[in-house]
Amino acid sequence: MKAGWGIPNNWGGDDPKELIDIAVKAEALGFGSVWVREHLFHASYVADRLHDRPYYDALTVLIAIGQATEAIRLGTSVLVLPWHDPPRLGKMIATLDQLSGGRVDMGIGVAMTEDEFENLGVDFKTRGKRTDDFLGALQALWTQDIPDYAGDFYRYSGQRFSPKPKQQPYPPILVGGYSKAAFRRIARFGDGWHTLRQSPKQVAAGVAEIVRLTEDAGRGASGLRHSITLPLDYSGKKDPDPSVVDRTILRGSDDDMAETINAYRDAGLDEIIVSVNTADLTENTETMTRFMEGAWAKI
Questions:
Q1: 3-state helix, strand, coil in the chain (%, to 5)
Q2: 147, 177, 281, 291: least CB-packed within 10 angstroms?
Q3: Band of pLDDT at residue 200, cut at 50, 70 and 90
C-alpha cells in the first residue's frame, strides 16, 4: 500500500508557492504521490468555505510541483471532465506527463455542484454521458496519430494531435465516485477507482463490484488500482465507531489510524491519500511528518 498527500490548492492560501513547498516536503518524507482538487467557481459548499479566498488551478499547480520534484506522482482528485474540452485538456495532461517524466495519475469525475454547471453553461443532467464521451475522445487523441473519433458530443478527424503522453498508452485514468454509473465507467474506460470518505466495508463491496463489471466487459481486472482520499484528525479524539470496517476518517492514536489503514488495505485499496483542511504551510508539514513517523510507520 502507498501513501499520498492532498495538496491544499482548495483551501485559500495566500501564497501558491507554498503549495510547491508542501509537495517537496511530501516527497522528502516518502509519500508516493501528491493530489490536487478542482473547482472553477466558488460554487455552493466551496463558497461557504472560502468566501473571497482563492482556489488555485489544479493543473497549473501540478506543473509547478512537477518541476520542483523528482519522483513523486502527480494526481488529480478529481478533474471534472464536462467542464473541459478534450483536445485542450488532452494536450495539457500529455504535456504535464512529458515534463514530469511520466508521473501523472488522472483522477476524473462528474461533480455535484449544479450551480457551477449552470454558470459554465454545461448541462448538469447530461454530465455522465458527456464524461463517457470525453473519455472515449481522450483515448483516441492519445493513441492515434490522426485521431478519428465520433461521439455524441465530440468529433475529431483529419488532423494530427501531439504531443502524446509519456506513459503508454496514456496516464492511468482513475474514476471517482461510488455510483453504479461510476462503476460502469471504470469497467469501460478506467484503470482504477479513486473514491473518498468510504468505509473499508463500502470499499470492499465497491472493489468487488468493479471487478465483476470489468470482467463482464471483457477486460482483465487484475491491473486495476484502487485509492481513497481521507481527512486526518489529530484532535486527540478516538474514533467513535468501534467497528474499524465502518470508519471513514483517520482519527485517534497512531495505533487506531494504523488499524484503519490496514482495514482499507484488506478491503482492496492500493493507496490512501490523506490531508488536513488548511493551507497553512507549517500545519501541513508538521502533520505530514507526524503521520509518516507515527501511524504510517506502524503499517
A1: 45, 15, 40
A2: 281
A3: very high
| d(C-alpha 190, C-alpha 104), whole Å | 15
Residue whose C-alpha is closest to residue 54's, from 75, 44, 68, 40: 40
Query: Would you tell me how many other CB atoms lie within 10 Å of the CB of residue 166?
Result: 18
Q: How many CA atoms lie within 13 A of 187 on its CB side?
A: 20
Which fold would CATH assign to domain 2-298? TIM Barrel (3.20.20)
Q: Which of 174, 178, 103 is nearest to 135 (CA)?
A: 174
Q: Are 68 and 27 in contact (CB under 8 A)?
A: no
Rg (CA), the chain: 19
- In the chain, where the domains are located: 2-298
State whether the Cα torsion 140-136-173-95 is positive or negative.
positive
* Cβ partners under 8 Å of residue 254, min gap 6: 294, 295, 297, 298
How many Å apart are CA 93 and CA 78, to the nearest integer? 13
| 264-297 pLDDT, tens digit each | 999 999 999 999 999 999 999 999 999 999 999 9
Using a pLDDT cut of 70, give the percent of the chain over it.
Answer: 99
Check residue 186 and report its DSSP letter: H
In the predicted model, what is the mean pLDDT of residues 176-195? 97
Task: Count Cα atoms within 13 angstroms, Cβ side, for 281.
Answer: 12
The separation between the first and the last C-alpha atoms of the chain, rounded to the nearest angstrom, is: 9
